Amino acid sequence: MKPGVILLPLLILISGCSLLADNKNKNIECASNSDCAVVGCSSQLCVSADKASEIITTCEYREEYSCLKLTSCDCINNKCQWLENDNYNECLEEVRG
After folding, report:
1. pLDDT (tens digit, 9 = 90+) per residue, 22-39?
2. Residue 70 in contact with residue 85, Cβ under 8 Å?
3. Among 61, 76, 75, 68, CA closest to 92
């Protein structure tokens, strides 16, 4: 059997695995809550601490932003996002009424 016949499929397999690993890492924003930060003029965004200094928002206020004091900006499934809880969800329902 020719060496190229064995090596080509092996190279394809190896390069495919490394592409999958690279794509997985791109979806990881955080590993712990300390990797996340609250930003925005109204403190309305929960983002990766690495990107926090790059984010600029307009200074608008929406009533639902008041509900954010009932929650926290956490690392959930490797994404920075607001932690939903009963108090937060009830507040949103009242505000959006």
Report:
1. 445 567 899 999 999 999
2. yes
3. 68
